[in-house]
Amino acid sequence: MRAFAYERPTTLQGAVALLAEHGSEARLLAGGTDLIIRLRDGSIAPRIVVDLKRIAELDGQIREHDGGLTIGARAVMTDIAADGRIRRDYRALAEAAAVVGSVQIRNRATLAGNICNASPAADTAPALLVYGARVIAAGPAGTRRIPIDAFFVRSGVTTLARGELVTAIELPRPTSRPGSVHLRRTRRRGHDLASVTLACAVRADGVTQLAYGSLGPRPVLVSDETGLLADPTAPELAKMRRLEALFVGASPSPRSMRASPEYRLAMLHVLGLRAVGTAIERLAQGSVPR
Amino acid sequence: MTDPCVGMSPRRVGGRDRVTGRQAYVADIHLDDVLHAKLVSLDCARARIITVDTSAALAVPGVRLVMTAADLPQPVPRFGPQFQDRPVLAAGETHYHGEPLAAIAAETKDAAEEATRLVRIEYEELPAVFTIAGALDPMAPLVQDPALRPGDRLARSNVLREHHYGWGDVDAASADVVVEGTYAFPMVTQFAIEPHGFIAAPDSDGIAVWSSIQHPNWLQRVIASLLHLPLAKVRIFAPDPGGGFGGKQHAKYEPLVAFMALRAGRPVRLVLTLEETFQAVRRGASEIHVRSGFRSDGGLVFRDIEANYLIGAYADIADRTVAKGSYTSNGPYRVPAVRIVARSILSHTTPSTAFRGFGNPQQIWAVESNMDEAARALGIDPLALRLQNLAHPGEAFIPGDTPADGDWARTVERAAELIGWGNPPAPGRGRGLAVGLKSGPTTGLSNSIVRLLADGSVIVYAGTSDMGQGARTIFAQIAADELGAPLDWVTVVMGDTAVVPYDQQTSASRSSVFMGNSILLACRDIQAKIRAMAARLEPVDEAAVVVERGEVRIGGRVTPIRDVLVRGLGRLGGELIGIGEMRKEAEPEHPLGGTAAFFEFNCTAVEVEVDRETGDVVVARHVTVSDVGKAMNPIQVRGQDEGAAIMGLGHTLMEHIIHDEAGRIRNLGAIDYRIPTSLDLPLRMESDFVENADGPGPYGAKGMSEGALLCVAPAVAAAVHDATGVRIRDLPLSPERVWRALHDAAESPDAGAPEAIDAR
Amino acid sequence: MTMRQRIELTVNGRIRSVEVAPHHTLLDVLRDDLGLTGTKECCLVGECGACTVLVDDLAVDSCLMLGVEADGASVTTVEGLATGDKLHPLQEAFLETGAAQCGFCIPGQLLAAAALLANDPHPTRAAVEEGLAGNLCRCAGYEQIIEAVVVAARAGASES
Question: Which of B401, B436, B487, B444 shows the shortest CA–CA distance to B167?
Fold first, then answer.
């Protein structure tokens, strides 16, 4: 790969200053599992790579906060998938983190990096959407909270401003613990990039949240407030109709070699129905994973 | 006497180095003063090269050489195992996505990489053909200059060769039921975990070349010829390759690296990226039409096969794979009338080359799928249909060729027994079965030298390439048993043409037989000398001395060879040298140039579960049984067979090279070319082998390690049909493609039916 | 633009100080700067695992880490598994079951297996399959590799 300068700031302020100064000539390095691939294939050629792993204010801890959780910017997928609180209260996120890639990838890939990369196929995005996560970003203008649904713009693009970096991701306290699940479609049972990702959360109050990725330029959140999807006795045909209506905005790219648009759409509906069923079961069981 | 080694599973010779990281593959070899090379190619399938400006590249600090076709002898030298068609560097035109037209040599990898970005090439993209239909279109551009094939009536087409095989009169045959279909096999690539590596270094009055090559002596000939050097001045070092599977059989960039080294006066090292290996080697893709005629009782009456293989821009050994794979395509069956037409069709794609199975998997996919369709049409159990038509041992099932050399029915029955064919599968599962046959080498020559040293330890020189199949180990086992040495007193020297005598090649599962026999004969040579020695020492007539399996027997007395040796060598010491050769001469009248030395035969039976909503196919059970003659090292046999089975599942379920509309490969690299991982295994895998000591190799061994790949695809597709009622004739059976077939079948129930079922 | 930076890292128990170019990966540094060629180069995109090493006891793809990121870290490569000429139980197990065929994927498999057993000394078969899922093998059917890990676990390999 092309050469670049390497900086390893030890303060948040120092990191922000570097990013603000260099703009698009600088790239943040967290786990590196996306960045290094792109450096090698030449799709990006920054003059400076800023390693955030020595910034004192950042860590990889998962802390309880206000009944919810705050996940540090350096938290890696292995830790997220293994965390008992996430497995219990935000199960779809734990499931997503567990399939992001092999153990070697999961030991390095950060949740923050996954969302900042903003691939429409990002495995953790649908789960974060259904849980209403918030992104905490620090920049030259200070710190702000960005609701996750307002974070993604399109492939590779977020609403982070120049000089901003993600310091943590907040998962708000669930009003009541939902039944939730993460599903995806891949070309083999082994680790793979997903051609459809889906998270579903069914709440005790009858609201169903679904979020899907890889069927459009960014992950999409939809919501069923009618109670139909959450109703275990409702007929399957009615649920399929409701899902069809909810998924009407899905627009898979015709150019992808991983899966055709028809297959992706069909699988979205198959996974949607399966996810709703599993989420209902988990809600009923009080959903504690083994 | 020490316990026999052959037939046991002692630890792999070379295993320790592999688990400690000491094993030196080509990329691990360090030479002082080496220059690092990188290839320059265009991002298109075919282009006319207008100008190449190397000045900016040459200006990069550390760059010592930027080579283009203009820097080579003119006209640009060409090479290739079948036709001398491949230029050392593309001259005038590039013919496939990834064909190099320039190469950089620099002090550092960074400098070489930077220089590749600065070579300025003016080019015009030209229309390319990369499908069978495209290549056969009368208006298609010609892939190869007709001037390269003077006098060839096919020279003005993209058909490189057309082969005709068969016997009897298919058109006169009368069948009650005729089943026909067309079956497609995709482009797939070997994806050895070690990318190809090459180093060349000027060597006093010649050249030394290191390569991950499977055929060191063949490479030696190619280099010697291109550089106008005598063979004795070309030294090929062939470290154990990190997987070959055929993709490392023939010269690729060694000639280029050799020219660069001579030009630079320094060693030059080129290690391909994984993406470059996908552009360098692959299997031939195919569309094969099969028409089989049966009596209503299931007896085969005729088989009519027309096969089009899509090979690449240069022939490499691809046409041979078409010929050899097609010649036996009727399968291990007794059929009175067979007609086979097979074509090698050139295209602007990666040159296809040898790949485990050598043209057979494509045919077996077609013929065995067709057999399963026939079983359904006839209302006969697919297992029974195979057994009924299988050639018996000794039967001349291919007129003019080696008769059936195994009890193949036994292999089939063993597979059936293991899968429990007689009992229905678990609910929700489908079951399928297929058989596969491949001929071993048709000609061959292997030499070996064995030295029995003064203390009874042994050195074996064998030119085979051990790329994981464990050749080194079984050779040591043979020598240990024959000469009475413990296994860890045997050293096997391979991979150096200056030291190791000539071996034709490592391919066609030949080495157990050809090199094994050669080593056996070398040991027998030594045994004869021991016999003379023992007779002299006694003294007694030689006729009274028997030397066998490490022992000397005179009358009732048994003495280890070693003891006789030590006494016999006396004060001068020394050693005994044995020379062995196994040779199978060519038979020019034979369509393949020679009869099969042996056949590899395998039966594979699988059970699958199909998720009808998603198209996912899970192989719940995979049974594979091979007819091996003698398993000289059972653990290694099992490792090869199961590895071949999983590799077969790769092209069955997930592997295919994807081109864009301009003929560029889209899924270069490991992210989008999917091969099986440890999470993609059959839920239960069982392998077994049949040992009847009926092979021509040592102790009755045959070759093995390709058989278990041959019939995976048709077995799985048959099982998918059994589970879903849907017949799929194109590989891979990826989830989306299975889903689509199920979908299409639901919409039009006739979709997927055989093209014709004639009931007369 | 290639300003080399000095890093200090512990490799197989030995402190190594070396100047590296920032854009070189840990794999490059191990193989080219430190001469440890046991770790292999294959896909370079974190899919094949041939480059797997342990960094602070975690299995990672060294092709997806910059060398400079390993400053201050403790790295274990295949060369660090044996103690003198005494093989690690995993290495013994791999030899026993015939897990190594061509051998090219084996260093990566060994490190991934070592990390697995350190976290999970008695893994289920499913856990072994998942733990090795980032290590491609083209020779074997994975069976003998998986068996080796199970055998090593029984022999108490995690205590090494």
Answer: B401
Residues A66 and A149 in one domain: yes
Q: Is residue A189 part of a domain?
A: yes
Q: Is the peptide bond before B732 cis (omega within 30 degrees of 0)?
A: yes
CB contact under 8 A, C95 and B640: no
Tell me the pLDDT tens digit for each residue of B310-329.
999 999 999 999 999 999 99
- Closest-CA distance of chain A to residue C21, Å: 8
> Which residues of A fall within a CB distance of 8 Å from B613?
270
Q: Looking at the predicted structure, is the pLDDT value of residue B559 above 70?
A: yes
Same domain, A214 and A256: yes
Query: C89-159: what fold?
Result: DNA polymerase; domain 1 (1.10.150)
Long-range contacts of A261-267 (CB under 8 A, 24+ apart): A263/A195, A263/B736, A263/B739, A263/B740, A264/A185, A264/A195, A264/A196, A264/A214, A264/A215, A265/A215, A266/B739, A266/B743, A267/A185, A267/A195, A267/A196, A267/B614
Closest residue of chain B to A263, computed from CA coordinates: B736
Instruction: Tell me the mean pLDDT in the region C46-74.
Output: 98
| A91 and A135, same domain (yes or no) | yes
Interface check for C46 against chain A (CB to CB < 8 A): the answer is yes
Contacts of A101 in chain C (CB under 8 A): 46, 134
Q: Cβ separation of C110 and B240 shorter than 8 Å?
A: no
Mean pLDDT of chain B: 96
- Say whether both A66 and A164 belong to one domain: yes
Q: Is B706 a catalytic residue?
A: yes
- Residue A278 belongs to domain spanning: 180-285
- Contact assignment for C41 to B192 by CB distance below 8 Å: no
C19 in B contact zone (CB under 8 Å): no
Task: Band the pLDDT of A125: cuts 50, 70, 90.
Answer: very high
- Summarize the confidence of residues B86-114 as an average pLDDT: 98
The whole-number pLDDT of residue C158 equals 65
Residues of B in contact with A1 (CB under 8 A): 113
- pLDDT at position B748 is 77
More confident residue, C3 or B606: B606
Query: How far is B92 from B87, CA to CA, in rounded Å?
Result: 11
- DSSP assignment letter at C122: S
Examine the fold and report which residue of A171, A204, A223 is the final residue of a domain before the chain moves on: A171
Minimal CA separation from A287 to chain B, in Å: 26
In chain A, the number of structural domains is 3
Residue-range domain boundaries for chain C: 5-79, 89-159
Q: Is A32 exposed, middle or buried (0-12, 13-18, 19+ CB in 10 A)?
A: buried
pLDDT band (50, 70, 90) for residue B1? very low
Q: Are residues A75 and A141 in the same domain?
A: yes
Is C5-79 CATH 3.10.20.30?
yes
Reported in sequence order, the residue ranges of B97-250 that DSSP labels E, i.e. its strands, are 100-106, 120-125, 159-167, 177-185, 197-203, 206-211, 234-237
Residue B535 has a pLDDT of 96
CATH number at residue A241: 3.30.390.50
B contacts of A258 (beta carbons < 8 Å):
672
Closest Cβ–Cβ partner in A3, A257, A270 for B614: A270
Could you give all domains of chain B from N- to C-terminal order, each with its CATH number? 15-22+444-584 (3.30.365.10), 31-126+194-242+247-280 (3.90.1170.50), 285-441+591-759 (3.30.365.10)
Interface residue C133 vs chain A (CB under 8 A): yes
Nearest to C133 among A4, A40, A190 (CB): A190
Domain CATH number, residue A150: 3.30.465.10
Q: Which of A103-107, A175-179, B205-209, B281-285 has the lowest mean pLDDT?
A: A175-179
CA distance B142 to chain C (A): 34
